[in-house]
Amino acid sequence: MLTSLKSGLGKRSGLVAVAALVGAVGVVGAWRALRPSWEVPLPTRANLPEERLQDFRDALYFPIREFLAGGNPYHPATMFEHWPVRQSFNLYQPYHLLLHAPFALPGYRVGAVAFALASLVLLIALAVLAAGRLRPHVPVALGTAVIATLLVLSQVGKAQLYVGQVNPLIALGAAGALLARRDSPKWAAVALAFAWLKPQFGLPLAVLLCVRGSRRVALVGTAIAAVASLVVVVPMIVRGGGVGPFLDVVAANLVHAGQTTYGAVDSLTAQRVDLSAVFFRVTGWLATGAELFTLIGVLAVSAALVQRLDRMGHPAASDLLTCLAVVVAIVHQPGDVLIAVPSMAAVGVVWWRRRGERDWRLLLSVVLLLVPFAHLHFVNLAIRDLFGVRVDVTVDGVAVVVAWVLAVAFAATRRCSGVGAVRA
What we know:
By secondary structure, the chain is mostly helical. It folds into two domains: 14-41 and 53-259, no CATH class; 261-424, no CATH class. The chain is built from 21 helices and no strands. The longest helix is centred in the N-terminal third of the chain and has 38 residues, at 2-39. The two termini are 33 Å apart.
């Protein structure tokens, strides 16, 4: 008994030591990832190409300043005229302008640092959710330390802080909606409302939640986001002269977004990973209405198969397919695969438990999803030198689309067995 106790204490001490070492590496990685937030120069029209915190500048700080000043930040011409921004403010949910207002009230540098720190906390929270799906194989503290460290060292994780994106909050919302939809539907609905921050996340996720039997979560979460947005939309409509002029602004926003080199579906340099954009960069051809057809097609196929996986008792695989469908169905960029981190962890656990069944498709799907995380700066330079810019901006998208195809193949051909059958 004494020997067993000593063995247990030794094992626990070893795990604590490993967690401490990983945590130390994570702290260094986090500091390096946060550093751009206090080193970035104050925005002027002379330094518009500055990439550090560009999303914080263009999609948060100055749009909120424009709204608080009585203007409509969704109008591209207005934003370019009034503020030092390089990109227009896309159609984020209007409640974004209130939710993130605290980061735009102080000076630019204070707001940037505060936002970067908040994003780091959200990444750690996402790591906690992912680590929870590794139990009982890995202690939550160790799993959190490892996953959080890998996130801040990865390209996807660093990009959130370097560019100042809102994806950590969206990823946490999407993961929370999927994890809590059965046991805590009210909290799942709130989480979905956060995922609606960008409609290209909220719409496909709400549809797939409905299909998977969580209609109340989908409807209530969507309603929360809509009501919260009305608080912002109504003043903008009143100040802008009515519903008609507001809809004209929305139309102008969509037209502008569709013509930019970084957002257009037929751009050879846009870093998009959705199916229609990847198809164009690979083939050079695009059918009329391809984006709408892709959205409907991907959701239809994925909806049928996530239902099948749920009926067969494969919730981990179903969650992964849900996340993949959200990303490939409509406009998305490599960093958006962050929403799949908890489901990737769950599938990894399931595969390890049932590795004797030798079903490689789901595991390979997870491996391919790691490509955007591993697409670090030196990898980026190597690919550009060897194959050119077009290949460099297409690699991540091809990996994500093939990952979805493999998950679809797994769901379409899988028979009732243990792979994926864990409520992790």
